[in-house]
């Protein structure tokens, strides 16, 4: 196996996040299910945006957030996602490259605008997402560069890619190239509502070996196996995939493989502000650990630390160097 050019390459829906604090009444007024991610059209996007108060606007997208986190830890990182050649698209490209991530996906010259996710953060820190995919849905297998995939130690894919058909094809192509090059493929289940939409397909990807590593939170795990019993779901996960990583909010995480189970506690925080990106940044820390062949426990500690940083401020991109944060907490990278 040739040396890797990148530690982690992520493929996902490139989205610009528009975050605003909102109350339960706002969610009810717009018929939103708290804590969910809903796909919306341009008209609904305009209606939600028009009713929002002052917003924080920042580049986002689940896998992109993870890859930025990986880069912040000091790894070599790359991202594949589709934006349009418009103002927001140009800002998105600037932001991800400024974070130290290689990003060479050609922007769309026509079609829908760069995608946006309108994120409502309630006083308890829970986030409710309304996503207009826009140009992101035009990501296709043609955007997947075989040489870049083959040169990446781990290829990380987001479950949300299963919504747009063309992106699904890109996902499968990337996984095959990665395995042909003896690389690892990781999948995040993204959202319990996403799992509800594609449960059988996700299970098939796990059981047929298309993915080697699965990230999920408790809600997604329960949805995947349609059981409310955590231990039952965890046993099934261990049987279905080489490595499973389940986040449990303040209870930390569980890492399961055929050989072992490892529980890692959550990192302490001063105040919960916004859960947006918590899972994304946990995955960043854990993937960094995997890429550097650190023990699962250490990888879990890095994930917990990165997630703790992200939930103490608005937005899903780190506001400090995660590498320095890890070193300050006694984790030598």
Describe the structure.
- It is a single chain.
- 39% of the residues lie in helices and 23% in strands.
- It has twelve helices and 14 strands.
- The strands form two sheets. A nine-stranded mixed beta sheet has the order 6-5-1-9-10-11-12-13-14, sandwiched between helices. Strands 3-8-7-2-4 form a five-stranded mixed beta sheet.
- α3 crosses α10 (278-291) and α7 packs across α8 (218-225).
Keywords:
alpha/beta, 5-stranded mixed sheet, 333 residues
Secondary-structure map:
Layout: E1 6-11, E2 15-21, H1 24-29, E3 37-39, H2 42-51, E4 56-60, H3 62-72, E5 77-80, H4 87-98, E6 101-103, E7 114-121, E8 127-134, H5 146-150, E9 152-158, H6 165-180, E10 184-188, H7 192-207, E11 213-217, H8 218-225, H9 230-240, E12 243-247, E13 253-257, E14 261-264, H10 278-291, H11 296-310, H12 322-328
Parallel strand pairs: 1-5, 1-9, 2-7, 3-8, 5-6, 9-10, 10-11, 11-12
Antiparallel strand pairs: 2-4, 7-8, 12-13, 13-14
Q: What's the gist of this structure?
A:
The chain is an alpha/beta fold. It has helices spanning 24-29, 42-51, 62-72, 87-98, 146-150, 165-180, 192-207, 218-225, 230-240, 278-291, 296-310, 322-328; strands at 6-11, 15-21, 37-39, 56-60, 77-80, 101-103, 114-121, 127-134, 152-158, 184-188, 213-217, 243-247, 253-257, 261-264. Helix 7 (192-207) crosses helix 8 (218-225), helix 8 (218-225) crosses helix 9 and helix 10 runs antiparallel to helix 11.
Assembly level: single chain
Tally of separate helices: 12
- Estimate what percentage of residues fall within beta strands: 15-25%
Strands, count:
14
Give helix and strand order, one letter per element, not per position: EEHEHEHEHEEEHEHEHEHHEEEHHH
- Secondary-structure-derived class: alpha/beta
The rounded distance between the terminal residues' Cα atoms is 24 Å
Low-confidence runs: none
Helical residues, percent? 25-40%
Using the alpha-carbon principal axes, give the shape.
globular
Order of strands across the main sheet: 6-5-1-9-10-11-12-13-14
Tell me the radius of gyration: 18 Å
Largest sheet, if any? 9 strands, mixed
Mean pLDDT rating: 95
